[in-house]
Amino acid sequence: PEGTNIQFDNFQVSSPELSFSYYAAWGASAGGISSIDGSGPIEGAVDLSLYVLEKSELFFDFSSWNGLSPILNRYKFGGYVNDIEVNALEWIQSNIWSLLPIMVVNGGKGIQAALNLYTYSQEIIPSHHLIESGELEIISPLTPLESEIINKITIRFSYAGQSDAFRSKVVIDPLLKEDEPLKYRDPLAYISYTRYGLREKVIEAPFVYDLQTAIRIARDKIRAHALGNYAIEISTAPKYGYLDLGDIVSISSEKVGFSNHKCQIVAKSWSDNRWRYVLHIEDNPLVTIRD
């Protein structure tokens, strides 16, 4: 009609008489931003992260992200952002990185990623073995950390903008006697249930459309939150400065009864000519056995 202003680039229509909402969909092999190798649209978590980091012109550690491609690109995402006020870094932090089994920290080479020992559902091999001695001392008791306990989780995914609803969900439920369609058991969830009772959480993932990605996220979240978290602090000689945030190490100490106990470095500081590290302790009886 006369007086109607149509902007095809962002699907907006303004008219004194009419009001429209337009929705677009792209097929699996067409549309969207192309991946680096040109094999299809960007959908892998690392490819998407590198795209946002490069476009944002931020200082980041390319090798730390690229090295995780075989693992993280199995987490696939899709969708679009139609709000020009959205900050790219804030968007990827809240919608993508928060669902991945990683720690994102600022390192010497910029923003870097490291697999999170307590989120990633597969076994991770420690990069260093630490033994308590005069040059490396445990200076705090094993301390519980405040964290949310989750043993039943629902991931709502496959968002449909036109109906403003999620079309699917996956559930991990400790009370299931056997797996059902889109509902799964998990031994760690059951152990948590016997300790803490039922603890439920629902996560909405509007940029997840792939079923296997939704299942991985659900299992990772159970791994991260089913059991309580603990930490110790260690003090080391300057030569241990090569240890960095996100490193997964094992530690042995006769004093506290650790033998090759896996943990992850979550804090690093310099004080009184020594390095101080906070180690997040793995307390998963299905993975780590304490002597």
List the defining traits of the structure above.
291 residues; alpha+beta; seven-stranded mixed β-sheet; four-stranded mixed β-sheet; 15 strands; disordered N terminus
Structural topology:
Layout: E1 5-7, E2 12-14, H1 45-55, H2 62-66, H3 69-72, H4 88-95, E3 102-107, E4 110-115, E5 128-131, E6 136-138, E7 143-145, E8 152-160, E9 165-172, E10 183-184, H5 187-196, E11 200-204, H6 211-225, E12 229-236, E13 248-253, E14 258-271, E15 274-281
* Largest sheet composition: 7 strands, mixed
CA distance, first residue to last residue: 79 Å
Q: How many H/I helical runs?
A: 6
**Portion of residues within helices:** 10-25%
Radius of gyration: 23 Å
Could you name the ranges where pLDDT drops below 50 across 5 or more consecutive residues? 1-11
Strand content: 25-35%
Number of DSSP strands? 15
Structural class: alpha+beta
Oligomer: single chain
What is the mean predicted local confidence, pLDDT?
85
Shape: globular
The SSE order reads: EEHHHHEEEEEEEEHEHEEEE
